[in-house]
Amino acid sequence: MKNAEMGAKHKKKRKKNDSMKDNAARRKKELPLAERRRRRRRARKRVVFLERLLVACVIAAFLGGAGFLVWNIPSLKLTRQLDAGKEYTKKEAYDAAIKAYENALEIDSASVEAYRCMAGAYLGMEDANHAKQILLDGWQNTQDEGLLKYYCTVLLNEAVAEINDDRISLETVKKIEAVLEQNMLEEEAMEVLGTACGRLKEQIESESLDFASFQEIANNLSDFYASTGLEGMAEIVSGFGWLSFEEIKLPMEYVDAYLSILENANSLEEMPERSDMIACLYKAKEIQAQFADIFAQMDEGNYEAAKDFIVTDGYLQLRDAFIGGTMEYWEGSTYIPVSREYVILKQKDGKSSFSFPAYDEIEGRTGVMTVWGNEMTDNGVQRSSITYEPAREGESYYPHTEYVISYMCSNVQRANGYVSDMNYHFETRVHTEEGTSTTMIGDWGGPYQWQKTY
């Protein structure tokens, strides 16, 4: 029943619409021809407008999408970041420039220009360490030799600046060596290295000897030459391995090190002066070794150990060489000190010599021995004597004590009276600001030992 009613309603509505269409068609036919044409033209214009509007919308949508794609092409994004960085760099806005170059590297991690420009920005900020790291990273990531050359150029420029500012150190040498290790700018780097080593040597020769630094640099140069075999390094190692001076104080702990430097340099280029200094240092080592045990005994207060020492062949040869003027390398006359802090090296007319500081010249606190190299005979017999002065207590020269041990010919008491005989004397001298008091023990350790104080 309900469906029948709905169907009747739709039928009635269709009849009404058909009637309206018939009426519209009838009215249209009744219009004048001119009006009907005007209306057709207006209808066509609307259709054309709508068609053109649709086409325009389609084109606009296409162009908008294409423009977005073009704007986001990686190569163009990279160019925009690089250009922005360069503009910031011109304005010295280095932080902004570096940020732009970082953005560029996020787009293309192999952009050589981004690495180069970022390094330039860091150099503009006077931050050479970051610049070098960026260039090194760039070289490792791209293998672009231009970045490696830029890195080496920055290192060499730093080294040259340190040379010009008198700030040369081992680090300066290492920077130049780093360039040589990269097989870049070899000619320029060798020239700079030669200049740096020459200046360093001049500083060491003209100032108080900082031998630790000299040794460190010399060993570095030698090791670098051994590992690279670079042409020209032999000349640099040899040149640095020879100090030209009139006199230096070399700590005894560095004698072996200096010998090693000299011998290594001489193996590359033999020099008569250097060979003579090598022989001089070996003589100083020999003397130190000869006195080492007696020093230890005397430091412990065992002065009787000197009795045997001053009659050994070695000590008598030293004594006689000084008396006869035949001693080689070791300078001194009459009373010749032997100490353990340092050796005084001298050079004159291509010849080397050495001496040891006396008690009043000692900077440390160890004792001093004195060889008596003067001709002193008793009944025609040459006296053999030695002096020992213990380590100081405090900085003042006074008071201090000397112990003199002698083997000599003198009149001594025997069972049948006084006779001339060889015997030991032990003398203690105490020096104060008021004067010196002496205690003499004659026939020391003999059956008729005697003592006298004055």
User: Which percent range describes the beta-strand content?
Assistant: 15-25%
Strand order of the largest sheet: 2-5-8-9-10-11-12
CATH topology of the largest domain: Serine Threonine Protein Phosphatase 5, Tetratricopeptide repeat
* Low-confidence spans: none
Overall pLDDT level: 87
The number of helical segments is 15
> What Rg do the Cα atoms give?
50 Å
Can you tell me the CATH superfamily of the largest domain? Tetratricopeptide repeat domain
Please state the oligomeric state of the protein chains shown: single chain
Largest sheet: 7 strands, antiparallel
Which architecture of the largest domain does the CATH hierarchy give at level 2? Alpha Horseshoe
Order of helices and strands: HHHHHHHHHHHEHHHHEEEEEEEEEEE
Structure class: alpha+beta
What does this structure look like?
This protein is an alpha+beta fold and about 450 residues long. It has two domains: about 75-270, Tetratricopeptide repeat domain (Serine Threonine Protein Phosphatase 5, Tetratricopeptide repeat); about 285-454, no CATH class. It has 15 helices and twelve strands. It has helices spanning about 1-30, 35-70, 75-90, 95-105, 110-125, 130-140, 145-165, 170-180, 185-205, 210-230, 235-240, 255-270, 270-300, 305-310, 315-325, and strands spanning about 245-250, 335-340, 340-350, 350-355, 370-375, 375-380, 380, 385-390, 400-415, 415-430, 435-440, 450-454. The chain has a seven-stranded antiparallel β-sheet with strand order 2-5-8-9-10-11-12. A three-stranded antiparallel β-sheet has the order 1-3-4, covered by helices on one side. β9 and β10 (about 415-430) form a beta hairpin. The longest helix has about 40 residues, at about 35-70. The protein starts with a helix and ends with a strand. About 25% of the residues are buried. The model has no long low-confidence stretch (mean pLDDT about 85).
